[in-house]
DNA sequence: CTGAAAGCGCTAACAA
DNA sequence: TTGTTAGCGCTTTCAG
């Protein structure tokens, strides 16, 4: 990589002249500017990012800490973040916490040494279980803003982007009860430990308790266990289930596939609604009626909020929470 | 963030003393070291990464350019890269090319300004279609090593990590012909434009041509089109298909689900084998028999190769290609 | 119109 | 044992 110094030497001018010429300063003579620019072009000169960062004390880089990159929703949010960040001239450094508190702390520390100007993150499962937040607060106190999305820590004062998990699940459940006249609706989840899993469960439970005379019927699946088997025996035990709300996409799809094995026609005998993306909902036959989360929008919003905060160093304290509403997308796993 | 300067001032010593003390230099007196370390601890001093990078002319950062983060395989490779990089003290900056040549070029340029020490990438679709490689060569000539994985540009001299796409598909096809005695095996793909898609198709075709007396039977699905519909009409038109090899996971799963709609029993009447990850193969009932790609291993290997190359600045020219073999995982969508 | 110099935070050769 | 200085690549103020 060429440096200003080398250009200056070759042109027999000073470093500052070259710098100014390239930055279109008014001070420099027309022909000098031209000479400088031509040589710079020739050598494909690019100002060294590291030097710039040091000088200006900002890196134009965002640290993103994701619990699980194999989670389609989280990957999609990352996509949204990346696109928005790029649009504003920011790069992103990605760390994967792998749902571990220690790795999350470590990533935060590691990048808080001047590598990034701020963070976007979704809280790791272990962190939520143990309810630790000190590392977040410390980071913010050190002057690095954080924006949390989806799984957020409520007792940390920072900007947040969340989903209407509770309402969406409540409404979906009520839909099955009222519009489809379902009599025994179950809730299936493999994310019951997460804040969002709990919200979804509560939304379901509230709708059941308010509108029916039976108790909520809930199946919690450990992520590493055999979901197909679990769902099969659950269906058998609680026959006749005629509606399913799933908190995650895998459970919803497996529920549809399993129904067929039981001789149940979806949606005639049983309706299934689940949180899922479009690509996931296409994997079942009939297609899964879904609660769609607009992951890219969430990512873009988070990036916008962070960038805005990083630019307005002034007014602090007034943290915002943005709710990105889900959409209900009717496919063929429900009636009508 | 505290700086050495501030610590030095508070301790009434020089900056270099503080620096040396923190770096356990032999030169500094025991008690000075202690005093310094205590204050540093108190203020949670972390050496500024940017200043270090500038000084040492390396960033300990890897640029990763991925065509599509929503592709489960690519996300998994990214996971492998991140883990290996972190293990060696490297960060990763992620760019998503979105299968676009321009975005790929742009990302390469943008990060080649001192932001990263090298690149790991998988070639964008458009780049493969147009067969452009100049931007890769230029980057390498500028002193930034590249490691390509999965979709590679063969005419670029650089380290590569690839999969045995051809052999794996050839063997899987042969397996259906010989071991399962299938008489009409189709190939379904939504990635026919990609180098790896072509390799898989050729592996299938070779097995068919060598071992049967019919022509290869191939369905190419445009990614944005209705795969369910396409597969349905394909099945109808070419009845009786009794075997499917799918180049991507979605096609395989949809093929299984579609078979049921045709009254075909999987695997009794029709066998399906597809490239897929474990989590994807769990989404069909019966589970998809898969060609597993070990994405994380691919990522880890790529990271290792790059890190090694960045450290041995000396010997160049001798580029390596590593093949990470697939595994054949028998599930219930094939006989026996 | 051009150049010299300081400084961002750090390390390391050299001086004291 | 500690301090001074130069320099990584860049911008920017101030002198010329």
* Topology, number of strands of chain A: 12
Q: Kindly report how far apart the N and C termini of chain A lie.
A: 64 Å
What structural category characterises the helix and strand content of chain A? alpha/beta
Proportion of residues in extended strands of chain A: 15-25%
Our Rg estimate of chain A from Cα atoms comes to 26 Å
In round numbers, the mean pLDDT of chain A is 95
Quaternary organisation: homodimer
* Helix and strand sequence of chain A: HHHHEHEHEHHEEHEHEHEHEHEHEE
Q: Which strand order spans the largest sheet of chain A, edge to edge or round the barrel?
A: 2-1-3-4-5-11
| CATH homology group of the largest domain in chain A | Response regulator
CATH hierarchy class name of the largest domain in chain A: Alpha Beta
Of all chain pairs, the largest interface belongs to:
A-B, 52 and 52 residues
The CATH architecture of the largest domain in chain A can be given as 3-Layer(aba) Sandwich
Keywords (chains A, B): DNA-binding, Transcription, Transcription regulation
Domain HTH lacI-type (chains A, B): 2-56
Organism (chains A, B): Algibacter aquimarinus
InterPro entries (chains A, B): HTH_LacI, Lambda_DNA-bd_dom_sf, Peripla_BP/Lac1_sug-bd_dom, Peripla_BP_I
């Amino acid at each position: 990589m060429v440096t200003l110094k080398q250009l200056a030497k070759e042109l027999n001018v000073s470093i500052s002249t070259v710098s100014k010429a390239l930055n279109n300063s008014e001070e420099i003579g027309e022909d000098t500017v031209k000479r400088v620019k031509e040589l710079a072009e020739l050598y494909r000169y690019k100002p060294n990012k590291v030097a710039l960062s040091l000088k200006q004390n900002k890196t134009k880089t965002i640290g993103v800490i994701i619990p699980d990159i194999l989670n389609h929703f989280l990957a999609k949010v990352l996509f949204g973040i990346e696109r928005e960040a790029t649009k504003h001239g920011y790069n992103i450094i990605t760390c994967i916490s792998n749902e571990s508190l220690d790795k999350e702390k470590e990533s935060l520390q590691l990048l808080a040494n001047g590598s990034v100007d701020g963070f976007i993150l979704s809280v790791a499962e272990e962190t939520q279980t143990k309810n630790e937040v000190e590392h977040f607060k410390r980071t913010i106190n050190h002057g690095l803003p954080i924006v949390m999305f989806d799984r957020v820590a409520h007792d940390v004062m920072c900007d947040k982007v969340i989903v209407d998990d509770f309402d969406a699940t409540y409404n979906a459940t009520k839909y099955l009860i009222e519009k489809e006249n379902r009599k025994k609706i179950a809730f299936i989840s493999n994310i019951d430990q997460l804040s969002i899993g709990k919200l979804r469960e509560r939304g379901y439970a509230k709708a059941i308790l308010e509108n029916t005379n039976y108790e909520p019927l809930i199946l919690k699946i450990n992520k590493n266990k055999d979901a197909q088997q679990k769902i099969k025996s659950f269906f058998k035990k609680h026959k006749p289930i005629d509606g399913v709300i799933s908190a995650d996409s895998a459970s919803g799809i497996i529920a549809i596939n399993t129904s067929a094995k039981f001789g149940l026609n979806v949606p005639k005998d049983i309706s299934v609604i689940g949180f899922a993306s479009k690509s996931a909902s296409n994997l079942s036959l009939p297609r899964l009626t879904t609660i769609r989360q607009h992951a890219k929008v969430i990512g873009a919003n988070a990036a916008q909020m962070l960038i805005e905060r990083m630019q307005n160093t002034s007014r602090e304290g007034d943290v915002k929470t943005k709710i990105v509403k889900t959409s209900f997308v009717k496919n063929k796993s429900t009636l009508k």
